[in-house]
């Protein structure tokens, strides 16, 4: 029995309102299509389970659980999920922002490394976004350059977006923590080798936000030094280097960088997490000293209101979660209702690229709420969940709640 039986191809209309245009890419269990809203004509990205994927209740919960979990907060540098719809075979689809540009991995492949000012301008909002997720009890667990999209807007400006919370862990609620454990096979190592801290490499179950601190440390090291802190010919060599703490200090690799930045990265990459930065507040403070960008104007977190997307998710699965309220963290931004598309253990977002031919990670645009309401059945005040054959509204569920240094060598 397959959970995905509806054949998808260009021209197929799903949810009664989104026409598929082209396949952007596929991940471990999901596929992302470029689509167009039939009424507004806006383009979106639609994330679905792969056709023919074997039925698995846990897998379905994983696909949907992340959308509900990350609906606890809202941040301008996290890709948004605007709707969850159903195909006529019952399989879910997520409607996301369609982003244009390239991911950070592609940019690094082109330029080698980033100057400190540019890095801080691009990554400070990312640190803020991840910190906002942490305040809501969400640990990403797969931060890497591929999952940081540099979205190019119509005016030419670039806005970084955090993508793919496919293996995210909700740590603020025991119920969701238990769900995460049940959805992950015992001993399974989930994440991307170069960016995983020792505790994640060893498959420990109590991975917390310090795993994301490590990953951001690796990303910072890589962007500023032009090389990863650990490498190897295979996963085994990489894991061994991580486990042994075989990392050359950033100061030795990039002596032109300010002392406070080098010390920050050293602190973020401490193998023993008990001695690692407990969160990203120090990173936010240090990086903020080296840019005049206005990305630091976020206020205190607020509890998230009920999310319409979470209501949609509730209709796809009967699995329920208790609401979770965010914890205050003044240095970071607002919280209200972030939703991030979920790709599963091997899945990924994909994006439409203007300048990079290979797809990386994707995102989505949906009609404004008032337009969605107009398109909903007359007797249905809630955001609709639809099937490919006939629109239907499913029951709602509450959402969870430095010193100067010598100039760097010429590239």
Structural features:
single chain; 411 residues; alpha+beta; six-stranded antiparallel β-sheet; three-stranded antiparallel β-sheet; globular; disordered C terminus
Describe the structure.
The longest helix is centred in the first third of the chain and has 20 residues, at 116-135. Mean pLDDT is 70; it is low at 172-188, 296-308 and 317-411. A hairpin with a 3-residue loop joins β1 (13-14) and β2 (18-26). The protein is globular and about 55 Å long. The strands form 4 sheets. A 6-stranded antiparallel beta sheet has the order 1-2-3-4-6-5. It is an alpha+beta fold. The N and C termini lie far apart (55 Å). The protein is built from 12 helices and 13 strands. It has helices spanning 57-69, 104-111, 116-135, 174-183, 198-201, 210-225, 235-244, 250-253, 259-268, 281-288, 308-316, 369-375, and strands at 13-14, 18-26, 30-37, 43-49, 81-86, 92-96, 101-103, 138-139, 148-152, 158-162, 169-170, 385-386, 391-392.
Q: Helix amount, in percent? A: 25-40%
Instruction: Name the structural class.
Output: alpha+beta
Shape assignment: globular
Distance between the termini: 55 Å
Number of helices: 12
**Oligomeric nature of the chains:** single chain
Concise structural overview:
This protein has twelve helices and 13 strands. It has helices at residues 57-69, 104-111, 116-135, 174-183, 198-201, 210-225, 235-244, 250-253, 259-268, 281-288, 308-316, 369-375, and strands at 13-14, 18-26, 30-37, 43-49, 81-86, 92-96, 101-103, 138-139, 148-152, 158-162, 169-170, 385-386, 391-392. Residues 172-188, 296-308 and 317-411 have low confidence and may be disordered.
């Amino acid at each position: 029995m397959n959970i995905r039986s509806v054949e998808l191809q260009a021209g197929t209309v799903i949810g009664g309102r989104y026409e598929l245009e082209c396949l952007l890419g596929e991940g471990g269990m999901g596929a992302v299509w470029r689509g167009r809203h039939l009424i507004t004509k806006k383009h979106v990205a639609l994330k679905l389970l792969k056709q023919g994927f074997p039925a698995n209740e846990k897998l379905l919960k994983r696909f949907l659980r992340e959308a509900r979990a990350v609906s606890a907060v809202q941040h301008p540098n996290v890709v948004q999920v605007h709707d969850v719809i159903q195909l006529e075979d019952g399989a879910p689809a997520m409607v996301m922002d369609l982003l244009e540009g390239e991911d950070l991995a592609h940019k690094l492949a082109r330029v080698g490394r980033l100057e400190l000012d540019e890095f801080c301008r691009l990554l400070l909002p990312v640190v803020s976004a991840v910190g906002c997720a942490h305040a809501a009890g969400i640990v990403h667990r797969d931060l890497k350059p591929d999952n940081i999209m540099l979205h190019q807007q119509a005016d030419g400006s670039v806005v970084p977006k955090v993508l793919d919370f496919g293996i995210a862990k909700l740590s603020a609620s025991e119920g969701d923590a238990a769900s995460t454990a049940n959805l992950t096979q015992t001993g399974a190592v989930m994440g991307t080798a170069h960016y995983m801290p020792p505790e994640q490499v060893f498959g420990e179950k109590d991975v917390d936000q310090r795993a994301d601190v490590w990953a951001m440390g690796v990303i910072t090291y890589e962007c500023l030094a032009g090389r990863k802190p650990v490498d190897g010919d295979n996963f085994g060599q990489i894991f061994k280097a991580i486990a042994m703490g075989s990392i050359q200090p950033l100061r030795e690799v990039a002596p032109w960088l300010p002392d406070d930045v080098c010390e920050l990265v050293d602190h973020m990459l401490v193998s023993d997490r008990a001695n690692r930065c407990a969160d990203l507040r120090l990173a936010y403070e240090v990086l903020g000293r080296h840019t005049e960008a206005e990305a630091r104007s976020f206020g205190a977190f607020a509890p998230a209101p009920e999310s319409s997307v979470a209501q949609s998710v509730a209709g796809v699965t009967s699995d329920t979660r208790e609401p979770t309220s965010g914890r205050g963290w003044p240095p970071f931004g607002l919280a209200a209702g972030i939703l991030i598309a979920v790709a599963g253990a091997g899945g990924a977002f994909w994006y439409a690229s203007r300048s990079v031919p290979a797809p990386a990670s994707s995102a989505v645009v949906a009609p404004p709420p008032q337009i969605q309401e107009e398109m909903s059945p007359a007797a249905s005040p809630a955001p609709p969940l639809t099937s490919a054959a006939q629109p239907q509204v499913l029951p709602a569920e509450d959402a969870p709640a430095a010193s100067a240094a010598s100039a760097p060598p010429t590239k």
